[in-house]
């Protein structure tokens, strides 16, 4: 089981696998069991964003055990949180914000 950190700019926390694009993150979700997923929203001009990952999770059913949102985009965070909380199974933890320091 792995922890995944999606971000094209920020440094990856220790104990996490870095995905710099939505496509990289989706590949990890397809092929690995994910414990913690921390999502950024903006991933570069014209690139698929964190919402594309959230949409993949919902349509595939490949949920991480816990999901956090470290994005600075309030609107993006709200879209991702709303989509995942509407569809996530009850045993999946969706946190409306970034990981606490002790989780990193």
From TrEMBL:
* Residue span, Cyclic-phosphate processing Receiver domain: 2-85
Query: Out of the domains of life, which is the source?
Result: Bacteria
- Keyword terms, alphabetized: Cell cycle, Cell division
GO terms in the biological process aspect are:
cell division
Q: Which Pfam families match?
A: cREC_REC
What is this protein identified as?
A: Cell division protein FtsJ
Could you tell me which species this protein originates from? Paenibacillus lignilyticus
